[in-house]
Hints:
Layout: E1 15-19, H1 22-35, H2 51-63, E2 67-73, H3 81-94, E3 100-106, H4 109-114, H5 127-134, H6 145-148, H7 152-158, H8 162-173, E4 180-181, H9 183-189, H10 197-200, H11 203-211, H12 215-222, H13 231-247, H14 257-278
Parallel strand pairs: 1-2, 2-3
Antiparallel strand pairs: 3-4
Amino acid sequence: MARKESTKQRNEAIPTIIGAGITEKWYFTHLQAKYRVRMKIRPRFFGKETVFMLEKKLSEVLKDGGRAIIVFDADVSTWNKAEKDRLETMKSKYAKNNRVLLCDSMPSIEYWFLLHYVNTNRHFGTSKAVIMELVKHIKEFDKTETFLKNQKWVDDMSADGRFESAAQRAVAFGTSGESYTNVWKAMQELHIVELEASQENPGNRIDKLVEQDMLFFILGTVVSADSLVDAESCEKALKIVRELKEDLPLSKLKDDKKLKTRLDEAEQIIMCDLETFQKPRSSSETPGQIWHEPTKRLGED
C-alpha cells in the first residue's frame, strides 16, 4: 500500500536520485512532496541520457559515501550498440552493490506512468509511442517544464489505488517482455509502496505459468525454428530463459529436476543458434538448421 509518510528510513543513508532529464526530476520532486520521502534531488544529478554521464554522476555519489537510485530509459540500447554494451557493463558492475539501485524502463519512464492506467507490456518501441497511449489518460501530458512542474498530474496518477496497481503490474510482467520497468524498485526502496513478499518473489512467475499450463509452451516457442531467426531474436530468447532459470530457485518447483533440465536444454539450443548466426557461413547453409532438431524433444517426457 502507498504511504503518506515514511517511517522506516530514520537510520538509513538518504538516497540520491540520479535521472536522465526533467521528467525524472519533476516526478521524484512531486513524490517527495506528496509522500514526505527522504531523498536527495539535485539539479546537477539530472542531465543528458547517456550511460557515461549516468555512471559519472553515480561515481560522484559513491565517492561521498552515499546511496544512489538511478532512473533511466533503456530504449537507446535498441538502436545504439555502443550504448547497449555500456549499459550491460554498468548493470553487471553494480548488480551486487547494495548502495546502487538501477531502475531502467523499456522504452522509457512513461511506460511506468502508463501502468498506472493500463495492464500491458506490449511493444511500444519509443517513448513517443508510449506517450501517444498515455495522453488518453493524462490528457495534457507533455515533456515540458511548463507541464511537468505542476504536481497535479502526479497526484491524479497516484490516486484511487493506481500507484499500487502499477507496481504490482510491473512486478508481474518482470523484464522479459517487449516493454518493462524497474521503477517499482525505487518506490519500494523509498517505502512509498509496500509489496507483499509473494508479489516480490520472482519465482511466482514460474508458478503462475505452470498453473496456466503456459511454461512449457513458452519454452517450446522461444527455441523453435520459427522464433530463432537471427542473432537479435536469439538474444531475446536467451534473456527469457535465463530469467526463468534465475527465478527457479525461488519457485515452488525449485526441486523439479525435469524442469531444470528443460531450461538447461533451452539455453543450450539458443546459445548454439546464436553462435551459428554470429559466425560466417556459406550461402547454402540455413542459419541454425543443425541445432533445431533438439527442440522437437523439449516438451516431451
